[in-house]
Amino acid sequence: MTKLIKVSIDGLEVEVPDGTTILDAAKKAKKYIPTLCYHPDLKPTANCGLCVVEFENMDATKRACSTPAWEGMKVITNSNKLRKLRKSLLELILSNHDVACPTCDQNNKCELQDLANLFNVDDSIFPKILKKRPLDLDSFSIVRDSNKCISCGRCLIVCQEIQTVYALTEGGRGFDKVITTSFDKGMYDSPCVNCGQCTVYCPVGALREKNHKDFVWEALLDKSKYVVVQEAPAIRATLGEEFGMNPEEVTVGKMYAALHKLGFDRVFDTNFSADLTIMEEGTELITRIATGGTLPLITSCCPGWVSFMETYFPKRAENTSTCKSPQQMFGTLVKTYFAEKEKIDPANIVSVSIMPCTAKKFELARPEMKDSGYQDVDYVLTTREFIKMIKEAGIDFATLDEQKADNLMGAYTGAGTIFGATGGVMEAAIRTAYFVLVGKELDDLDIKAVRGMTGIKEATLTIPTKDFGEIKLNVVVAHGLSNARQVMEWVESGEKDYHFIEIMACPGGCVGGGGQPYGSSIADRARRGISLYKEDKDLPKRCSHQNPDVNKCYEDFLGKPNSEKAHKLLHTNYFERSKLNGEIIREITHKH
Amino acid sequence: MYEKIFEKYSPKKDNLIYILHDIQDQHPQHYISEDAVSEVSEYLRIPFSHIYGVLTFYTMYSTKPRGKNVIRLCESPPCFLKGSENVLRKLKKTLDVKINQTTKDGLFTLELCACLGVCGNAPVMMINDDVYGNLNDEKIDKIINKIRGEK
Ligand code: SF4
Ligand code: SF4
Ligand code: SF4
Ligand code: FES
Ligand code: FES
Fold first, then answer.
1. CATH number of the domain at A4-78, please?
2. What number is the ipTM of this complex?
3. How does DSSP classify residue B102?
4. Do B49 and A190 count as a contact with CB atoms less than 8 A apart?
């Protein structure tokens, strides 16, 4: 048991466990201390100084976010001296900041803007010392505007410690300090895996996604184009919170209605291809087990993970499922299966996907993603861009009447919807693999051991198969790339023996994706995951092999799972990438 | 290419700054190239970008090729009070470069640095490993011409 200490916050006595920071102790006393660089999910960088506090019994100031409280401490959270200090800190920051709020992506969400406004800061007090630097525009997924960067250091913690990618670093020092990439070459020439976590945690508008929204509008308003849209599972778990609705409910019907209203010609659902992915990946798993193929099998639905694997663990390409991500499977089918059925020239189809993810913007541009004969997916909108579009069109989301997805590629099961949360792909795959191996459905479809926010979740499942007796399946689920790195190190050293591994680059899985609303915390991610599991529980069909549209697609078009045609259209291969700049070094696995 | 240097130091992270130092010294253009960073990153198993951060934190390292003679003029207050600004103006004019640039003939690079610890002789500059103090226009001409003559 940690010992409790007594502290006083503005005269209010509270008891907190030893080691608690002054900031957390103040929270316990319901006292607000302004912060800027601090974020509750991240270890404090203590860069901004805004959280300074004074003491009744000591002549000193300390940073509340990073200083542990001590027995007998008497904190003053606000005083004329502190206010003045905080105000000039903000003024100093603004003197080195490109103040361009109306055009900034973080307008109304920006933590700096908020504070500057609360403190009535005058940004003309200090002369502008900002040395303008060019925007970093070359990445497929992320735009970096160093003129807005306030050097809070959050993105460094995220990229280096939570994701262990080390794309971002600090260059120079003092007034010349900038957050940059090695040799200042930009994100495109770095090992960035496009996960976008840095954009979610940036308190200002210095990191954002590459905009595809204008292209999508252009396509929607172009009469000669046939615009088809798919939406990832995580989207329906996020829209509610952004439009002032109950954040614990998914908003499927309203989401479809909004898309129809925006003018999409066909509104389908990525959950359809999530189910399809399970048919392909589940079959691959069973074949590998039955024929003594390479194990463990690792999921491949996350393009952030795929890039990370290609960069840091290229030898694991042979373990990584050959399945494309649900987004890309969907894209290929839109321009083949759907185009054929509807007799539409695929050249006129614009295929849009709405994703919680920035890595999908990179994925769509991978040169091999053209199996339909065209670029399989044309544009990816992040959740943030989609929300902006709804607002731009003046749609009152909360009051929309619910609608359905369109036929052919719109049906989905509970297994498809839980893809959006960490552990979901694993659970969905087990449901179907069990059915195929045993010949009947699992008694209890809830596989709780792989749910939840623990970074690495292991489980051993006993499966009484028809053909080769009882087998024990060791599975593990990791989310956040530092956890993925740990699991890969165990696999490579032989310390752990797994059959099947699920990896998602983003903490919490796609509900915590890099394209989700700015500031999404661990708590937000956990809540969105729970809403997806709730939706799953309420759906009439909860296993991918029960999806009628998927079964029809096999009957009418693909043949059976892992057929030659399925391989040609729905599977892919991997490359080794440079740790220095992400460049392709060589092809490691080949497409059959 | 850097085996000789790596032999001197065990692959411990603490050795990073020494290794970088040796690499820079060994290079005729006094700088640390991307290739070098990449090899050090492999040897010490430290991320590339981390080494880049260290490189740019310390003014003694350069990531760009530098002249054969690196001039580092002290810009700390004691030298400033004794006229380091005039010295800077003179150097810029004589060499026809700006700060952090290299002369066209590749002979000189002009840089600024913090106190060199010989403030008694302010204003002070270093050229490679040699210290020159009590600088004035005349003295600067002499020093520069001498080096130009040696080439
Ligand atoms: S997108 Fe991910 S990998 Fe790229 S810089 Fe940001 S945090 Fe690092
Ligand atoms: S880019 Fe954003 S998160 Fe990173 S240091 Fe700058 S302000 Fe902070
Ligand atoms: S976890 Fe999901 S949102 Fe994050 S990079 Fe992977 S696919 Fe994209
Ligand atoms: S919030 Fe504590 S130093 Fe920035
Ligand atoms: S101030 Fe210039 S040498 Fe000390």
1. 3.10.20.740
2. 0.71
3. B
4. yes
